[in-house]
Sequence to fold (364 residues):
Amino acid sequence: MTRHLYVHLPFCAHRCGYCDFVTVVGRQGQHAAYVDALLAELALERDLLAVELETVFLGGGTPTFTEPQALERLLTELPPAQEVTVEANPETVTQELARTLRGLGVNRVSLGVQSFRPHLLAVLDRVAQPDTVRRAHYHLRDAGVDNISFDLIYGIPGQSPADLEADLGDTLELGPEHLSCYELEAKPGTRFTHAHGAELERQADAMESYFELVVEALTGNGYRWYETANFCRQAERDLRSRHNLAYWLGRDYLGLGIGAVSTIRGNRWRNTPRLAAYVAEVAAGRRPARELEPLTSDVRMRERVMLGLRLDEPLAVEGIGSVLDQTAVERLVRLGLVARNNGSLALTPRGRMLGGGVTADLLA
Ligand SMILES: C[S@@+](CC[C@H](N)C(=O)[O-])C[C@H]1O[C@@H](n2cnc3c(N)ncnc32)[C@H](O)[C@@H]1O
Ligand code: SF4
Fold:
């Protein structure tokens, strides 16, 4: 039974130039109907879910831009879970919103910070200023949220190593429990890429050194580098994102809403990204249009390796040995990029710095 639930809330106040997620600008008049549709889709798929969920994750879009009544109804109606995360844009986090989230069982908030440098926030079309982030963080703490994650982006046009160091310094000052640090991905052919072409190339050349800087600053300040792009404070409780760990460990999850992906019992499907079609279908009691991808055991094993080796814990190779190129394993072990131990594999710190390339080499 599936113990992980993702819910997509696509609405945003505006569209940031670099963003490639399934989002819809404005449409306040449609938020309530969309939440009704989410709950109807949940009812259709209820049998796939375990009675007790481990994690619920409300992602976006900007979940906290959703009309307050609709968001409250959703949080009230969703099944409870041990970890309930909501993604929030800093400018939406008022004292009232923070208290409402906490009051409705949200125990983890992922704040889209991206940067603390005003000139970089402007390049990304972000509304929040550095002080907006600090205020949001304060409101969440004040409301009793004791598990806060920041999203940071590096490789932003105009960014220098000193800018990144300053972003990490400002982050460390606030001390969130968890951090996700992403390389900026700029999709070819978009207005953003067109506007920043040459500068994006310069940033791409600096990516490796930025990554090293991030890892050094965060591990040097006591954070655990538990996944390629994710870090958590070391404490008595485990502060890794349980929801994302489920993805990385190849567990089943159900996704609700437009563009949401589900992976259950060897099948993967992706809901239509079209809001009107989704709402109309589900309101009529039917499943929304979906792209279906049956996962062969070969694909599942490859994903297991690609995702599992992003973690800092060894990957047991029993049952997935057939997708590994044993000659490459030997070579990468000799080069000090892969560590082998009692039937498990892990990337060494140097291997993790090189990332996906090493893992791709391991696959037959
Ligand atoms: C679902 S997104 C949006 C969350 C929220 N609406 C926000 O903007 O803060 C989650 C995270 O993905 C990251 N992200 C979005 N677009 C990205 C891109 N093009 N390259 C790298 N990271 C990106 C950002 O750090 C963002 O906070
Ligand atoms: S607010 Fe977040 S989800 Fe919405 S457009 Fe900007 S980056 Fe994308």
Observations:
- The first strand starts at residue 4 and ends at 9.
- The CA atoms of residues 159 and 312 lie 29 Å apart.
